[in-house]
Each structure stands twice: as structure tokens, then as C-alpha cells.
Amino acid sequence: MNLSHIEHLGIAVKSIEASLPYYENVLGLKCYNIEVVADQKVKTAFFKIGQTKIELLEPTSEDSAVAKFIEKRGEGIHHIAFAVDSVADALAEVESKGVQLIDKAPRAGAEGLNIAFLHPKSTCSVLTELCEEPKN
Ligand code: CMX
User: Fold this and answer.
1) What is the value of pTM for the model shown?
2) 39, 49, 52, 128: which has the fewest Cβ within 10 Å?
3) What is the pLDDT of residue 89?
4) Whether the predicted pLDDT of 134 surpasses 90
């Protein structure tokens, strides 16, 4: 599989508003997009560092995956996302190597990317996302 770079790191926070001053005033990053991903029940905020982004994830519902994560483990790094040429091809490859998939097929994620998650039980306990720029 050809991973080109770390597309983003997902960080679970209780409140984007309360977290922004650290990222903007201390680290000097600029939040360039805030977007709700309704089907994932999260609000997201994005910052760029080189080719990589930081994605803050605030739950919008108590039953969201991110709300459950914060309840169990507290705020902090939630997932790593790798950029690939083709999420569908990468899913087929990792599944053939015994990795448990959360998403069996690519779906729409934040920022217009096609994405899919791999289960942390098969990825050394790090929730892993594969991302692909849509080809129009
Ligand atoms: N990183 C590592 N391990 C995680 C995890 C994470 N982010 N989230 C859950 N787990 C672990 C739990 O600690 C638990 O481990 P134990 O069994 O050892 O206690 C196990 O996975 C099961 O966790 P759970 O709380 O019972 O939750 P579920 O099984 O209901 O769901 C998961 C876990 C990973 C399948 C679910 O969170 C998921 O589907 N995540 C992918 C989607 C997602 O996270 N969306 C939000 C971001 C959206 C975006 O970026 O757009």
C-alpha cells in the first residue's frame, strides 16, 4: 500500500471553542474550517501544518463515537489518518491481510475526502483512517 503522508491527526475535545485559544494563540496555527459531520455526530475544526492537518473533534451527541471515547479515555489523540491513492484498493489489501474493517467501503468524510476506518483491535490499538482526495 502506498501511504503518501499523514493526512491528519484527529484529537477528541469536549469543546472546540475552549480548545481554539491553545491551537491559535499558543501554537500559532490558524483554524481554517469548522464543519459538522452529521452522520458521525461530530463538529470538526481544522488547522494545517505542512501537508498534515490537525482535526479537532467535538461530539454533537452523547451517543457519538467521540463522546464514548472521551467518556472512557478523556480528551486526547483519537485517530491517525493516512493519505492513500485509493481507499477501496487499500481496504481490499488490508482486509486480505486480516485487518478488521469498520467501513467495508469508502464513504464521505469531512473536507470532501473519501474515507474509511480500520478497527483499533487490528491496528495496534490506534484507530486508523484511510483518506483519498476524490477524483473528479
Ligand atoms: N482509539 C483506540 N481504541 C479505541 C478508540 C480509539 N479512538 N475508540 C474505541 N476504542 C477501543 C475501546 O477502548 C474499546 O477497547 P476495549 O474493548 O479494550 O475496552 C474498543 O475499542 C471498543 O470500544 P467501545 O467504546 O465499546 O466502542 P464501539 O465498539 O462502539 O466503537 C469504534 C469503537 C472504534 C468501532 C468506533 O468508535 C468507530 O466506529 N470509530 C470510527 C468512526 C469515528 O471514530 N468517527 C468519529 C470521527 C469522524 C471524523 O473524523 O470524521
Assistant:
1) 0.96
2) 39
3) 97
4) no
